Amino acid sequence: MSEPHRIDGRRFRQVLGHFPTGVAVITGIDAEGNPQGMAIGSFSSVSLDPPLVAFMPDKNSSSWPKFRDSGHFCVNILGSDQESVCRSFAVSGGDKFADLAWKPASSGSPVLDGVLAWIDCDVDVVHEAGDHFIVIGTVRELDAGGNTLPLVFFQGGYGRFSALSLAAWESDLALQMRSADLARPHMEQLAEELEVECVASAIVGSDMVLLARAGRLESSALPTAVGQRIPFEPPVGTAFVAWAPAAAQQVWLDRLDKNAAPETIEAIRQTMAEVREAGYSVGRGHRWHAEAAKALSHEEPTLHQDETSEQLHQLIGMLPPDYESPKAASGDERTISTPVFGPGGVVVMVLSAVVAGRRSLAADLAFTVDRLRSAAAAVTEALHGAEPEGATG
Ligand SMILES: Cc1cc2nc3c(=O)[nH]c(=O)nc-3n(C[C@H](O)[C@H](O)[C@H](O)COP(=O)(O)O)c2cc1C
Question: Given CB 3.0 to 4.6 Å as the disulfide criterion, which of 59, 186, 274, 352 pairs with 375?
């Protein structure tokens, strides 16, 4: 047997960087009672019975020795919106908790606000392993909170997880842009004929993004702008999911508050079935639209994206589960949306007719739906797409 190669440190890092990890902040309380913490990628579950987890601090870490003797630590799993939290815990020294809200877990170790999940532990055993320690902890208490996606670290960069079933929608921005381009003449014609604003949107990441717009409404209560993002969370976005495979529908449903009642989930599923059967979804209610308009009305949308998306998240959470159902007609229909299919029956884009102010689409509903669906069918055909088999719409 030949001697093992001497492994160059840079190459070790470069090759190991091909393994993506989540990111966690390990927190604890030092001897003076102050919170301490460090960012790590080396977190793993170890054993179910007894429940054990592990992480691996560098022997040079200045934080770990500060709370090691307390006998406790808490693993805080970061969401994709917490890259800045990660960065502040990935430096040595300074008050890493200066601008952070947290509360103590039962061990006293900090649980950071807004984390995806946390696992409070007692130190079980610490092994030495080269220039690192392997810390094994017994789980005391744990919970999973937010409905965001995890922060992911891969080849030295931050990213976010995207389920393959969702990636089908967002994987091909070129296709989405092309379909928006193909849709443009239809959108313009529709906007003029129906005196509505016609918008095309697609899924990008965890948002619905407005790709194109035709027809400017005089007294527009909805400040629609290309590039505008609305969180893709139930009960909004049904037209994107009603035709999707069950696994993709589940990914969308999982974005609901984890305390959502089973009846709410059932009502959203029912709405999906109704949207699929009718071939379109609606958006109702003057008041909700006015509130959403307020949240979207920043002059510099990109500067306020986090704030806007939080406000929209709250507003979406207030909507009834049948909000987009074509059956729950209220006479106050503000938007009508219908899907454009790409090859393989994937919804690449949704076309919507939007009205503003005091106007409603109720009086012209059947006609608007018919025209919108013909436009969507024409774009679907130009894309060589097709509605998935078994669809009844
Ligand atoms: C994504 C990511 C993963 C990391 N994983 C680890 C790890 O597993 N173990 C470790 O000791 N440091 C890890 N670090 C580096 C520490 O966060 C960094 O060394 C920090 O400065 C430690 O601070 P301290 O001196 O306060 O302990 C990671 C950093 C990042 C950005």
Answer: 186
